[in-house]
Amino acid sequence: MKMKQCEEALPLLEKAVQIRPNAPGSFFAMGGCYEILSNKKKAEEYYRHVTESVAQSGQDYIFQGIAFSKLEDKERAIGSFFDAVKADPLDVEVRMFLGNSLLEIRQYDIAFKHYFVASEISPQYAPAYTGMGKAMLATGNLREARKHFNKALSLLPLGFESQRPGFPERKELLELLDKTKG
């Protein structure tokens, strides 16, 4: 979202918060808008509301986990992502958030397991293989890392844009593959 869009969205989000005062989604969106508008204090206030709201779905727990991350509480963020998996075990996005958070705190084996489950749920989802490759790279298993990065590369959409060297996902994967040459 851009600044102008946030300025226009805030009054609508305020109404949404009044209608559903315990739903984390509206608070999360408001926090994001205030962050874009460079009002850190107000953003943190709304992120705190997210962490105090009642999560009812995997997506709600993701909002809470991201809010905890933005408030620099990694432990509670990861706890929220684990809760998201309990609420929605077949949601690929939930698995990816948890895997990425675990990768950040160097829990490579557990991160790998969640990326693997994401790849089982959605076998054509390239980011799951990228995550598995990153986990393997971090443990020093270059052969396995290379295998997963190559699989992710093979799943990128075909077409002129994705084949260009500057395509972000392709560029990242090629850089990661370079690291596996050891």
Give descriptors for this structure.
single chain, 182 residues, mainly alpha, 77% helix
Written description of the protein model:
The chain is mainly alpha-helical and 182 residues long. Helix 6 (92-104) runs antiparallel to helix 7 (108-121) and helix 7 packs antiparallel against helix 8 (126-139). It has eleven helices and no strands. The model has no long low-confidence stretch (mean pLDDT 89).
SSE inventory with pairings:
Elements: H1 3-19, H2 24-36, H3 40-52, H4 58-70, H5 74-87, H6 92-104, H7 108-121, H8 126-139, H9 142-155, H10 160-163, H11 168-179
Question: Gist?
Answer:
With 182 residues, this protein is mostly helical. It has helices spanning 3-19, 24-36, 40-52, 58-70, 74-87, 92-104, 108-121, 126-139, 142-155, 160-163, 168-179. It is built from eleven helices and no strands.
Summarize the helix and strand pattern as letters: HHHHHHHHHHH
Mean pLDDT: 89
Largest sheet: none
Number of strands: 0
Distance, first to last CA: 40 Å
Low-pLDDT segments: none
Q: Beta-strand percentage? A: under 5%
Structural class: mainly alpha
User: What is the helix tally?
Assistant: 11
Using the CA coordinates, give the radius of gyration.
18 Å
Tell me roughly what share of residues is in helical segments.
over 70%
Oligomer: single chain
Overall shape: elongated
